[in-house]
Amino acid sequence: MNKVKDARYKDITARSILYAVLVIVALYYLAPLFLMILTSFRSMDEIRVGQLIEWPKSFSFDAWHAAWNQVQIGARDELGLQPYFMNSIRMVIPSVLLSTLFGALNGYVISFWKFRGSELFFALLLAGCFLPFQAILLPHSIVLGKMGLSGSTTGLVFTHVVYGVAFTTLFFRNYYINLPGELIKAAKLDGAGFWMIFYRIILPISTPILVVSIIWQFTQIWNDFLFGVVFSDPSSQPITVGLNNMVNSTTGDKRYNIDMAGAIIAALPTIFVYVVAGKYFVRGLTAGSVKG
Amino acid sequence: MAGLTIQNVQKSFGQTHILKGINLVIPDGEFVILVGPSGCGKSTLLNCIAGLEEVSSGEILMGDIDMTYAAPKDRDIAMVFQSYALYPNMNVRKNISFGLEIRKMPKDQIEEIVQKVAKLLQITDLLERKPSQLSGGQRQRVAMGRSLARQPQVFLFDEPLSNLDAKLRVEMRTEIKKLHHRLGTTIVYVTHDQIEAMTLADRIAIMKGGEVQQFGTPQEVYDEPANIFVAGFMGSPSMNFIRCEVGQVGEQCHVVVTSEGHSYKLPSPPSQANLAKYVGKEVILGIRPEQLTHVMPHVESNAFVTKVAIKVEVTEPTGADTLVLTRINDEECECRVHPAEAKRPGEMMDVLFNMEKAVFFDSVTEARIL
């Protein structure tokens, strides 16, 4: 009897410790975000005289407005992060869609339409996942120059699609390899061809992995700084570059509230995408581990 | 509808020869079963017929038309798969109509066919459901419905019942047979289950190692197996194989078996005239368990029946009969006796060896001695 009781206390204790650790870690991770949000709503005067960490005395959106379209960044005519944000949108949407589509197509071919050397092809594609992007900056800029895409949004889209396809192909291939090959055989006998099978059968059952690919690519491309800073000119610089310029190019005192608001603005879309599609994300990543 | 002619079909993957020259002529409307152990090439042959895999050499004809290199969609063949391969994103109706839509059939005609097929297979209530909401048996029906809807020249079944539980399997087996009677379409059906093969087929092709060992009616392959492999593969419990020496008294050949120290001369049936060439040599006697029975007075007088005293090693009651395991010529041998007559392990009992349906195999080539 006592033994059972002991085991129960042990269990409860272990669990309490576990939860305590989890709560502390969660707080530790959330604290900076919380601080950012608080600071973004405080006025500069308040920040200057008060503590760095303090509850806002007055609550204002001034810093958000400023970061969005009032602050002078570099020597541009347009003010604020807005134009950068729009550049990012213009860049991220086609990049995500194209890299996901190509990934799906690649995965479909590698899984179901094997050809001589398709395994080697896949292995080479995989190498792209491990490629350090710094290494290709110079050659790739030459490629972009020869294609006449230097400094353009199209050039950035091209870059992100090319270097994103390795990952998206891996995602889709690993998802499709678990589908029964008989599905394709049945469709072939039903008279469907390559594209028909892809659109009518394979794509409709790819939702979980489509979501994974979209979230992954969106986050990667939206948060990318390296390609954004190297392959763009002022007309096409993405938000990450804009934020960097805003924080680093102001003279006089640091306006923490505007910096914080800007940083949150830059991060909002990825948070939004994750919240909207997040539940599919985990589902898609674990797909195939459990047979449905 | 059309028959199917398979001429010297070979298939290799690199150095691995899967099919080593298959020849089968299947008349229109026949139900043919390809049966054999795993890796015998039966599924590969089916895929070749469907056009899902290209043959390395040889010809496949449907009716008189050479289809060897035709695309699967142009062969007018429908196939039911082991995993059913229903499209998970489509409901039952769409699954059935997909092939018709692709062939650009008018909408009202499609609906008519879907209704007809659904009624035939009793799945009308399930038309709006997704495959994930169906049981195994229902999925099986939908998979059959999908192939029926196209009204193909030839049906191919790739182990369609192996994912069902035992009871459902027997039910569906009967239903497939009824369906064949009703439609009269040529069917090629792959299975590794010899009972399925025996019960369903008009003719059975037994395959091993990429070759057809025998192609004949169920009764033929059961009674007249071409070699030891076929004899052992068809029938459950399996045929007994006993190595024994051939002797001759006058015109009559016999084989000598020993049980518990006593020797018996078992006469060969008149159909086995060529056994005389093996006098003094060793052959393999093939005799089915049902030819080894308990003592029944009315058959005892038969000239081809010999009473042998055996020692019971193990008994396996099946309900209708009890299988009694013993040793003859130091090889395991199963007898099928009436449950009431079966003795317990360790005891002696008399068993009648009825040689009328016995077959003999060459001990080296393992081919039947005819």
Question: What's the topology here?
Answer:
The complex is a heterodimer of chains A (292) and B (370).
Chain A: H1 2-40, H2 44-49, H3 62-69, H4 82-112, H5 118-127, H6 133-147, H7 153-176, H8 182-189, H9 194-202, H10 207-223, H11 226-230, H12 239-249, H13 256-285
Helix pairs in contact in A: 1-13, 3-13, 4-7, 4-10, 4-12, 5-7, 7-10, 10-13, 12-13
Chain B: E1 4-13, E2 16-26, E3 31-35, H1 42-50, E4 57-62, E5 65-66, E6 77-80, H2 92-102, H3 107-120, H4 136-149, E7 154-158, H5 166-183, E8 186-191, H6 194-200, E9 203-208, E10 211-216, H7 218-223, H8 228-233, E11 240-249, E12 252-259, E13 262-267, E14 282-287, E15 292-293, H9 297-300, E16 305-311, E17 314-317, E18 322-328, E19 331-337, E20 348-354, E21 359-362
Parallel strand pairs in B: 3-8, 3-9, 6-7, 7-8
Antiparallel strand pairs in B: 1-2, 1-4, 4-5, 9-10, 11-12, 11-14, 12-13, 14-21, 15-20, 16-20, 17-18, 18-19
What key attributes describe this structure?
heterodimer, A: 292 residues, mainly alpha, MetI-like fold, 2 domains, disordered C terminus, B: 370 residues, alpha+beta, Rossmann fold, OB fold (Dihydrolipoamide Acetyltransferase, E2P), 6-stranded mixed sheet, 5-stranded antiparallel sheet, 9 helices, 21 strands, 35% strand, elongated
